[in-house]
Amino acid sequence: MNFRSSMKLVSMMLVVMLLLPIIENYAMTNTVQANVPVIIEVDEDNVVVTDTNGMIVGIMQKGAKVIARSIGDGQVVIQWNGGIAKLQQEKVVESTDVDASQLNLVKESTNKLGEIKTSVNTPVYKDELKSDVLLTIEKDITYEVKDETNDFYTIHIGDRVGYLEKENVIFSQISEEVIEPQQNPLASGNGKSELQSLLTTKKEKSMFNTLADAQQLSEMSISVKQEFKSSDMYFEPTERLPIYDNSTGKLVLVGYLEKNQVYQRVSDYGDWHKIKYGNGFGFVWKENTKPATTSSIKNLNKGQLNSSRIFKATSILAVYDNSTGALVQFATLNKDVSYPIIKEDGDWYVIDVAGRLGHVYKPATKAEFTLEDQYFQPTERLPIYDNSTGKLVLVGYLEKDQVYQRVSDYGDWHKIMYGNGFGFVWKESSVPTSGNNLKNLNPGLSPSTVTFKAKSILAVYDNSSGGLVQFATLNLGVSY
Questions:
Q1: How far apart are CA 382 and CA 397, in angstroms?
Q2: What is the pLDDT of residues 331-356, one digit of tens each?
Q3: What is the pLDDT of residue 407?
Q4: Which of 220, 256, 295, 348 is the most buried (most CB within 10 A)?
Q5: What is the mean pLDDT of residues 20-43?
Q6: How far are the Cα atoms of 163, 219, 225 from residue 148, in angstroms, in the given order?
Q7: Beta strands 421-426; 404-405: pairing state
Q8: pLDDT above 70: residue 369
Q9: Nearest alpha-carbon partner for 91 in 67, 61, 124
């Protein structure tokens, strides 16, 4: 045996030794084991991780590596929070050349320190240096904590040790009391579940004696799955649901629908509801919803269409229903999402999310330009550049909150009239406007043949209101 073969054998033995505790633990908790665990690598971005109920609990990115406990029937099973979670088999590949000693695998099962609940979509890192993200856990997910450091909690995920930043989660201490289950907690003395007994009792009495009885039945019935028919056009989430946009060919998390609100769907889409989202469609996971009727929707969109105007959310954006006179949040748009508006309503934009009209706060957005926009308003003092020599030369400034006409859209720039040619200003630091309040618009006058050269920095004033209002600046040495 040569040196290379010896090293290969040693590496294989090391992988087996590191995986052995996982195999033993898995065998103890699972009576049927189809496959020996293997190291897998996610092969594309935004791969959805679902729990055993089909709820989306995490998102994995290309290159992330975890241990697959079994692979088959189109699914990959991984360790998740004391149980298991699943990925689509077609989204991963087996990693054959990885050094298992670098994966920080779980070596033994440990008691849990407590639990955390994610307050935002929370990345799980492979170490405290935050060098690689194993997975991003969705908001409002509860997970077992194994240990902690100064800034991180550690968890076991995909049979690896993962690190979550404390600032992104809410921690709760584990109770010292240990209750040993003597029997199925849902089983009553006659062998029926409490739900069955309650249903039978109330059926015999033909009514509920108290509101508490009705509430008890409602809470216990929540786990009774209600099947959707293709004719069902409305649904109600039983928990806060992520909205995914698939327009790029990948699932991108763009926002949320709220628990106990009712929404319209465009159609059934297998395990998903297809909903109206922007100028296209969004998708929400069907498992955590139940059929509903339109009767509770007061802000149903009955034909209002999107305009050509689009905004970009500059922060996480609440979408409100104000049909009752009060602002009731029914959806959320994530930061940096671009979305079409139907109309403006004072300090608000009116939009359509899942067939419902909603209001979003205009100052928390930035309007995007269309090719048809003729006027713009800087949100800060903007440099003017002259490109007539083939180089960008700073020649002056436009003032914040003033309104200007542009010749055309020029990619990331506005093309404006400047002297006998054109100037360019950066589009990002400006917003579209109507130009209705522009009092000193040039009615068509052409420049003369006379030019001057600025001997100092020159202020350019508008006196259409009877007072001098500076709206531009020309730099020293500029000829105009």
A1: 5
A2: 999 999 999 999 999 889 999 999 99
A3: 93
A4: 256
A5: 54
A6: 9, 35, 38
A7: unpaired
A8: yes
A9: 61
Say if CB 158 and CB 66 are below 8 A apart.
yes
User: What pTM value is reported for the model?
Assistant: 0.50
Dihedral of CA atoms 352, 353, 357, 362 in degrees, nearest 10, equals -70
The CA distance from 106 to 3, in Å, is: 31
Compute CA distances 285 → 13, 48, 339, whole Å. 42, 11, 21
CB atoms within 10 A of CB 159: 24
Dihedral angle over CA of 469, 473, 479, 480, nearest 10: -40
Cα 430 to Cα 157: distance, rounded to the nearest angstrom: 45
- 8 Å CB contact between 474 and 457: yes
Report whether pLDDT(221) > 60: no
DSSP string, 352-389: EETTEEEEEEGGGEEEEP-TT--EEEESS-EEEEE-TT
Cα dihedral: 180, 183, 186, 191 (round 10): -170
Task: Please tell me the distance from the alpha carbon of residue 368 to that of residue 430, in angstroms, as a whole number.
Answer: 9
**Amino acid found at 381:** R
Q: How many CB atoms lie within 10 A of CB 330?
A: 21
Nearest to 143 by CA among 118, 162, 163, 121: 118
Sign of the alpha-carbon dihedral angle for 283, 285, 317, 166: negative
Residue 152 · residue 71 · CB < 8 Å: no
Does an H or E element contain 396, and which?
A: strand 393-398
Helix (H) or strand (E) holding 14: helix 3-29
